[in-house]
Specification:
Blueprint (H helix, E strand, L loop, with lengths): L5 H6 L10 H13 L16 H34 L5 H36 L15 E9 L6 H9 L8 E4 L7 E6 L1 H13 L13 H12 L2
Parallel strand pairs: 1-2
Antiparallel strand pairs: 1-3
């Protein structure tokens, strides 16, 4: 049995795999070295499951989750605050409305006082204002007029004429039902508007509840006088 496989026992390499010729062995080595690049491992391409792409996707997902969490917490906080806040009672609503009305009246009073100071300075210095009447085109002049207190109910016809015929007459100031210490105020007026108002009041009723005036009474008296004294 030892004589049957002598070469394998000496070299440890099968006979079929041992090189037969040294030239063939050298050629095999040269060919293997020339084609070595074909057997090298190709560089790993970055695909959809690469480490860098996966890290980028995970960072984007984290940002989206953070934004969604913030929005959810904010909405919960807002809804909870609205639900927890107490519903105002009718007394609270009335108190709030009264406070707003007082604030509004206070602002109007402040503006009125400022306006009165400005017109008073013009009146004392006898200077005209820069404003003009939109109906007659005259320069508005300062004047000191009385303040009328009490319940004054003008007719609708008078209010229409006050807006369209003599808007800057301002012969007096209406102070309301509550009588105060102030008796006079300062206004800007148009002389043509005052003449038009006086003329309109002579021919029409300007207060509610007063008897209607007869426009043709003067003409009737003149006709009777002509008939008596031909």
């Amino acid at each position: 049995m030892l004589a049957r496989f002598p070469r394998r026992l000496k070299t440890g390499v099968p006979r079929c795999c041992a090189p037969q010729n040294p030239r063939i062995e050298l050629r095999t080595r040269l060919i293997t070295g020339a084609n070595a690049h074909r057997y090298q491992a190709a560089p790993r391409s970055s695909g959809p499951f690469d480490d860098e792409s996966m890290s980028q996707k995970s960072s984007i997902i984290k940002k989206i989750l953070v934004i969604a969490t913030v929005l959810i917490i904010g909405s919960i906080f807002y809804i909870g605050r609205e639900l927890i806040s107490p519903i105002p009672s009718p007394d609270d609503i009335k108190r709030q409305m009264t406070h707003e009305a007082e604030e509004k009246s206070k602002k109007e009073e402040e503006q009125y006082e400022i306006r009165q100071i400005q017109i008073r300075s013009l009146y004392e210095n006898q200077k005209p204002s820069n404003a003009k009447c939109p109906i007659h085109g005259e320069t508005l002049l300062p004047d000191k007029v009385p303040i009328q207190y009490g319940l004054i109910l003008p007719t609708d016809e008078y209010m229409g004429a006050l807006e369209n015929i003599f808007p800057n007459s301002n012969q007096s100031i209406y102070g309301g039902c509550m009588v105060e210490k102030r008796e006079f105020g300062y206004v800007l007026f148009c002389s043509s508007c005052r003449e038009a108002e006086n003329r309109w009041k002579r021919e029409n009723n300007w207060l509610i509840g007063t008897p209607k005036k007869q426009k043709s009474s003067n003409n009737q008296h003149s006709r009777d006088a002509k008939q008596r004294h031909p």
